[in-house]
Amino acid sequence: MDRRRFMSLTAVAAAGGFTLASMPQPAVAAGKAKALLLSCMDYRLIDDLVRFMDKQGLQDQYDHVILAGASLGVVSNAFTDWHETFWQHLDVAIDLHHIETVIVVDHRDCGAYRIAQDVDTAGEPAVEFDQHRATMVEFANQLEERHPTLGLETYLMALDGSVEPVELG
Questions:
Q1: SS (HEC) of the chain
Q2: Is residue 112 a contact partner of residue 40, using CB atoms and an 8 Å limit?
Q3: What is the pLDDT of residues 72-130, one digit of tens each?
Q4: How far does Cα 97 stand from its chain's mean position?
Q5: pTM higher than 0.90 for the full model?
Q6: What is the predicted pLDDT for the residue at 119?
């Protein structure tokens, strides 16, 4: 950027109350992240996911991959084009940020489940939970096969942002 453009941008920023010191600092591209979060794309839960990860003590310490259906997007035959994409993202997270754990957060009332399984279980919480659990078990099996040293945590989020662990064993 030339000096004239820089000065112009600085003047505009200052007029708006911004200074260079108040501008967000760029994230560090390399280093260590504790985990990779796999979640659904559902706009209703993005803020809740951030709050959940912050409560886990992972603020600014995780990579984030978003696929419709979260774990379903990795294992369902309805979304086969996404499978290798996820595994490539995971490999990059391991290589660049040395992650040690994958955290999967599926959610209730997930449209991807309705598309992939052609059934709506939102009114049947126990059946819905079992569907997510079965998908997460398949995900866990694939993760174990590809990356046996990585940890795995699995959760199911409700639309109110509450989260329950999903035990796979």
A1: CCHHHHHHHHHHHHHCCCCHHHCCCCCCCCCCCCEEEEECCCHHHHHHHHHHHHHCCCCCCEEEEECCCCHHHHHCHHHHHHHHHHHHHHHHHHHHHCCCEEEEEEECCCHHHHHHHCCCCCCCHHHHHHHHHHHHHHHHHHHHHHCCCCEEEEEEECCCCCEEECCCC
A2: yes
A3: 999 999 999 999 999 999 999 999 999 999 999 999 999 999 999 877 777 889 999 99
A4: 15
A5: no
A6: 75
Mean pLDDT of the chain: 87
Tokens matching residue 33? 């992240």
Both tokens assigned to 91: 């490999």
Q: Which pLDDT score is estimated for 169?
A: 85
Provide the CATH topology of domain 27-165. Answer: Beta-carbonic Anhydrase; Chain A (3.40.1050)
